[in-house]
Design brief:
There is one protein chain. With 376 residues, this protein is of the alpha/beta class. The chain is built from twelve helices and ten strands. The strands form two sheets. Strands 3-4-5-6-7-8-9-10 form an eight-stranded parallel sheet. A two-stranded antiparallel ribbon has the order 1-2.
């Protein structure tokens, strides 16, 4: 049997979990999203990934969907979500960079609507929100083979800001490490991130798909340059192998762990089984066929906990990731999906429920495949 796992792993390089939760009856927005520290800045305790915004290949994106995506954006912004994970590579072919363009457009529209509402209600022409409610874009800059010099990363950051039509990023990140195949490029990437900060183009820096060893090296270099680290993100869910070392490394580096794929590409939503797999041609189809048999005990536990707390499986899976001290970044492409994700906040799993889920997760024999560019 031919496995599509390597292909899916490659796709994950460009991902920060935008597979959205299964929308089930009873899902609703729950309160305001809280805030947590991330190095020198504060971010929302729940984020939003934007991989699907512009991706035709896996998510069947079409510009006609933009209005519905905006409704999702407005919903999560109203709830207090400020951190949006994106990348300069997000968008298929001619739509490359589409996610960044939409983020800029959506925020300008959102602020204009707030201003218009404020004017109609109070006669005030300009909406002035709290600093803590400001949109925070965390963009990942792809280490393309031609980006061999530190200046190329600074140029990439400036191009991202042009697409966003903004002056400064909240967080500039490297999308993945090249340590496994081009050590010299890795050094240039690090210096480039530091230069982006020194030029005032970002508030802090971050990394994606770095393991504890590589994160420590990166942290040491940034400390030498007095460049603050805000986040490190890895694939993290009930289906991934536990990696306490990365949590410890984040604590040592003084940054927050971002958990992408908290729903394991949708496998944890409860939507899929061997009789109901993703469509033909979708790389997830074969992957789920391989993972689902061994995941049944975990999915059963997840379903039982969800019923106990009156939530959906997706909401429990996201809340579990929050309980571990991470900031999950599920995506949303419509209003119902946004509301489903927001139903994961405003409440907390009990310690007993977390332990029950931990035990079930540990019992999964075949874990989710690791990103092929994940370093140690």
């Amino acid at each position: 049997m031919v496995s599509f796992a390597p292909l899916l792993a490659l796709c994950l390089v460009l991902a920060a979990e935008t597979v959205t939760a299964l929308v089930l009856p009873g899902a609703r927005t729950v309160g305001k999203v809280g805030r947590v520290s991330a190095g020198p800045i504060e971010i929302s305790a729940l984020g939003c990934g934007t991989w699907s915004w512009g991706n035709r290949l896996l998510w069947d994106y079409d510009p006609s969907q933009d209005e519905e995506i905006y409704r999702a954006y407005r919903e999560i912004r109203d709830a207090g979500v400020t951190i949006f994970d994106t990348g300069d590579s997000y968008g298929t072919l001619d739509l490359n960079g589409r996610a960044e363009i939409l983020l800029g457009q959506f925020e300008r529209r959102y602020l204009q609507e707030k201003s218009d509402n404020s004017k109609s209600m109070f006669g005030i022409g300009t909406f002035v929100g709290n600093v803590s409610d400001t949109q925070q874009v965390a963009t990942k800059l792809a280490p393309y083979p031609w980006r061999l010099r530190r200046g190329s990363l600074v140029k990439a950051a400036k191009e991202s800001l042009k697409r966003l039509e903004q002056d400064k990023l909240a967080i500039a990140q490297t999308h993945w490490s090249t340590a496994n195949y081009n050590v010299f490029q890795e050094g240039a990437l690090w210096e480039g991130l530091g230069d982006i900060f020194d030029e005032g183009l970002c508030e802090a820096v971050g990394v994606s798909n770095y393991g504890p060893i590589q994160l420590e090296k990166f942290s040491n270099r940034m400390k030498e340059r007095n460049v603050p680290i805000a986040v490190a993100q890895v694939q993290y869910s009930l289906m991934t192998a536990r990696n306490d070392e990365i949590m410890d490394a984040c604590e040592d580096a003084g940054c927050r762990l971002i958990s992408y794929s908290p729903l394991c590409l949708g496998l944890l939503t409860g939507k899929y089984n061997l009789d109901n797999l993703p469509r033909e041609g979708n790389p997830r189809r074969q992957l789920f066929r391989e993972l689902l048999p061994g995941a049944q005990p975990l999915l059963g536990t997840l379903n039982a906990v969800a019923k106990d707390v009156g939530k959906t499986q997706s909401q429990v899976a996201i809340n579990w990731a929050i309980s571990k001290g991470t900031v999950p970044i599920p995506g949303a492409r419509n209003l119902a999906q946004a509301q489903e994700n927001l139903g994961a906040v405003g409440w907390k799993l009990s310690n007993a429920a977390v332990q029950e889920l931990d035990n079930a997760s540990a019992g999964v024999k075949k874990k989710m495949i690791e990103n092929i560019f994940q370093t140690r």
